Amino acid sequence: MSRIHLVERRPSLTTAQMLKHLVPPRQFTSASFESFEPDANFPSQTAARDTARAFVAGGGGGLFRKSTQRPGLYLDGGFGVGKTHLLAATWHRASGRKYFGTFIEYTALVGALGYAEAATALAGASFIAIDEFELDDPGDTMMMTRLLGDLMEKGTKVMATSNTPPNALGEGRFAAADFLREIHALSDRFVTLRIDGVDYRHRENEGRADVATDVELVALPTTEAVSDDLFRDVIGHLATLHPSKYVPLLAGISLAIWRDVVAFTDQNDALRFVALVDRLYDADIPIRASGVAVDEVFPDDMLSGGFRKKYLRAQSRLVALTHREISL
Length: 328
Ligand SMILES: Nc1ncnc2c1ncn2[C@@H]1O[C@H](COP(=O)(O)OP(=O)(O)OP(=O)(O)O)[C@@H](O)[C@H]1O
Ligand SMILES: [Mg+2]
What we know:
alpha/beta, 3-stranded parallel sheet, binds adenosine-5'-triphosphate
């Protein structure tokens, strides 16, 4: 057996496969309300957990009345505070036909099927989870608002989390107000909740990304569950794929090896890499890499620009993945 090369993969998905992929990614297959440990310093974490739990429990009343009456729940917050964890926990708890995907996956579904067919495929679901709701593209936002409106009309509950907003220079900037404004017609169907906190990943992984030597990379397992590529080839390949394909690009991979990592000079390359890191992180795929440390690939001018938060989050995820144990 040999290692595979990501650059040789050009995934395409059928409708049925796209729908089958709409479940929580590997890292969150066992996320639950019980495994969520609220940080006592941030009471909004306990509040978010309880509201999310009440949201799918049905009935309700009392404290959570407001959230259970509305069919939509939107979680806003900084990175690593447990938004996706709570979204997955809620999905696991929901009964009936349910879907879980990133905003990009839903827009890709509509792109592939057309609006009417995508809406029909999702219609009648009891619960739809949308991770990282994007507000960058007005067309996509409008399409998704329409889709959610049609679904909620027929009784579907929708829960979404915020994506790191573009041009969010201030660390303290939150997206809930933008979200409500952009989905205007639907805004009174959503309760928004803000989770404060510190990046949970830092609680377990202090420090920087590990850098491997070429000798160490050679010694790693050689199976088809391991991808082995030159970093710059991967970056070039990403430019030729729609970001919704990054999920199937990584199918079956349990370890990603990148050789000769270099820092970015092009912002588009860097943003596509961020999207890949998100999918690696969701799928819980450890990274081993040589060259420049993977958390140092974003140059200062990018780190101080409009996408600062995206890069900081990618750094946090990259550090976690280079520390992750390999299990094949
Ligand atoms: N309070 C918590 N208790 C237990 N695990 C947590 C908690 N908060 C976060 N985690 C874990 O930390 C990791 C990061 O959390 P998660 O991905 O849910 O954060 P997020 O808010 O979605 O961040 P991002 O901005 O990166 O999407 C996950 O593995 C998650 O299970
Ligand atoms: Mg998340």
